[in-house]
Amino acid sequence: MAASGRILVTGHRGQLGSDLVTYLSAEHRVSGVDLPEVDITDLNQVLNAVRRLRPDAVIHAAAYADVDGCETDSKTAFSVNRDGTWNVAQACAELGTRLIYYSTDYVFDGTKPTPYIETDLPNPRCIYGWSKLAGEEAVRELVDDHAILRIAWVYGFHGKNFVKTMIRLGKQQLAERAAGRPVSPFKVVNDQIGNPTWTEEIVRQTAEVLDHDLCGTFHATSEGEASWYEFACQVFEILDMDVDIQPCTTAEFPRPAPRPARSLLENARLKEVGRNVMRDYRTALVEFLKRNGQELIG
What residues are paired with 182 via a beta bridge? Predict the structure, then answer.
C-alpha cells in the first residue's frame, strides 16, 4: 500500500486502535470509527461509514476482548466478534477494500508442546476464542484481499491490560506497607505460557503487512515466552518496585473462561516472507516501561 493511502480503523479509541491511529497517521490519511458513533453490529452503520470514507484499507481493531465477559455473555461476544466482523467484511467486499483483522492466540487449545504455526488446526477452549475464530472465517469468506493477524497477551498505554493491572496492585501494596499496615503477597498464575506483546510492536508489524500487501493468515507476536508470573516479575524489576508476589496455579485462581496452558505463537509465515519485525518481548517491555512507567505509576 502506497504512502498517503486512506485507512479506516475500527475501534480507534481502544487499546490497539489508539496506537494504530497515532503511528499510521505519519504516512497515511487515517480515520477512525468507534462507539457510540458507529456500532459494528449494525450493518447499515458500517456500510455508511465505509461508503462515506472510501478507504484503501480497513483495519478492524474493534472487538469484545473481555475473555471472562465473553464466557458469561456469549450473545454479545458473537454479536461483536463474529457478526460485527461479518458486517465490516461485507462493507469491504462491496467496495473492494483491503481488510486487516486481528485474531487471537486463544483460537488454539494450548495442548501443543511447541509454538503454534499458522497451519495448525484451531480448537478454542473459550467463547472468546470461538467468537474470534468465527470472525476469521467471515473475513476469509467475504474478502479476497485480507490479512488476519493473530496477536496475544496485548498490553499498551491505553485501555485495560495486565501490565497496568500489575502496576495498580503493586502501588496498592506499597501504599499499605508505607502506612504500616500488614500486607500479603498477591498471587499470579505461573502455569499459563504465552507471548507478551506491546501494542506498538503490533502496529509496526501491521504497517509492514500493509506496505508490502501481504495476504493470508499470520501470527504476529513478540519473540520469547513467559508465564503471567514471570511477566509480572519483570514489570516490577524494570520499574524497581519492591512488590511481594507469589506464583500460583490456574486451579488456585479460577476464572469463568478456561485459558490455554501454552498459547505460544510462532511468526512462521512472516519469517518465511522476510517481513517479521517483532522484537524480543523483553526488549519491547523495557522500552514501554521506560517511556510510560512513571506516568503509569503516578
Answer: none
Whether 192 contacts 259, CB under 8 Å: yes
Would you place residue 134 in the very low, low, confident or very high pLDDT band (cuts 50, 70, 90)? very high
Q: Does 128 qualify as catalytic in the annotation?
A: yes
The model's pTM: 0.97
Identified catalytic residue from 128, 155, 229, 281: 128
Q: Which domain holds residue 14?
A: 6-157+196-223+264-279
Domain with residue 117: its CATH number is 3.40.50.720
Q: How many domains, in total, are found in the chain?
A: 1
Q: Please state, in angstroms and as integers, the Cα–Cα distance from residue 198 to each residue in 170, 272, 288, following that order.
A: 20, 23, 8
Mean pLDDT of 201-207: 98
Residue 113: other Cβ atoms inside 10 A:
6
